[in-house]
Amino acid sequence: MRTARRTRTDPDMEWTGPERRFDLVKEFVVATIVVGIVIVALSFAFRVPDEPAVTFKSWASANATDFVTTAVAELNGSSTTAGYGRPYNNTPGAAQKLGPISLQSAAGVSIPVDTAEDFVLTPLSTVAGDPQLAKALATYRTASADQQASWSKSYGDALAAAPDNDPAKVAPGDYGPVPVLAAKLLALASSGALDGALASGTDNTKAQLFIADGGFLADQGDAQQLGGDHWGMVNSSGSFPGQFWLTGFSFWYQVDPFKSSSNGDALAFGALGILTLVVIFLPWIPGLRSVPRLLRLHRLIWWPFYRKQRNDAAPRMGAVARK
């Protein structure tokens, strides 16, 4: 009885071909050095542009109208941060949900933000030697919450109705001390002092939230093709590549219902989570796990191996046929 002959792919077959000493550590060191040299050389040849940071000083200098409008919105609670909900505040109905689940609410208010107090009143309180400002602050703080809301809302509406939203062209009205507070905050920002007043060590969260509430930062992003409709999360300045690994997350913001939903962030998070689970458990999902084998792309990648395997098998098959 003739025994089955072992093939070249038999894992138990002893290797009888040539051998060569292989130093894995040496190869790793050499590869690291070579790749490091290439990275350093490319970084010098194709440097990422160093765009200046957006600060309150640059914002106030470039678009004072937008700054004042945003400051008033922080006072009257109509800004994005003021109504964002958790983790910044407890704005009713602001939390996004994934079905009945609201992960945003579950996190709680971990970074409490009172936009009027934190972004306007407290920074202005650091200014000394200004009687007009001290009087305006005292008047605003001692007024009732309803009176404060009435002043700031009236001035915000008047700003929106003024030509070019220019504070100098606002129609006369009962705005209380709000115009003085807005003008003094603009002066504080223009001097560069507001950047330091809103920073807390290395924590710039509040400063960034305030800047993001205005239109100036968004305009700078759009000019660099970094807006949401530009796939901004995966772009970088100019023609330089950005965070391409965020494509799987950014993609959902470009299509409906994610694009137009008020729960877009939660839906995108959920979709990406489901896809991640599918990838993790792919080897155990019937049908999907067979797709690579059915597509046979691996045979295109390893075609030299499979061609050699066929050529080696052909003489043996001919010998068997002759017998």
- Which overall shape is indicated by the principal axes computed on the Cα atoms? elongated
Order of helices and strands: HHHHHHHHHHHHHHHH
- The number of helical runs is 16
Radius of gyration: 32 Å
Strand content: under 5%
Give the strand tally. Answer: 0
Tell me, rounded to a whole number, the average pLDDT.
Answer: 86
* Helical residues, percent: 40-55%
State the low-pLDDT regions, or none: 1-6
Structural class: mainly alpha
* Main sheet attributes: strand count, strand direction, barrel closure: none
Distance between the termini: 14 Å
Description:
It is a single chain. By secondary structure, the chain is mainly alpha-helical. Helices cover 54% and strands 0% of the residues. It has helices at 24-45, 56-62, 64-76, 103-107, 115-125, 131-142, 145-161, 178-191, 193-198, 205-213, 216-223, 247-250, 264-280, 291-295, 297-301, 303-322. Helix 3 runs antiparallel to helix 7 and helix 3 (64-76) crosses helix 8 (178-191). It is elongated.
Task: Give the topology.
Elements: H1 24-45, H2 56-62, H3 64-76, H4 103-107, H5 115-125, H6 131-142, H7 145-161, H8 178-191, H9 193-198, H10 205-213, H11 216-223, H12 247-250, H13 264-280, H14 291-295, H15 297-301, H16 303-322
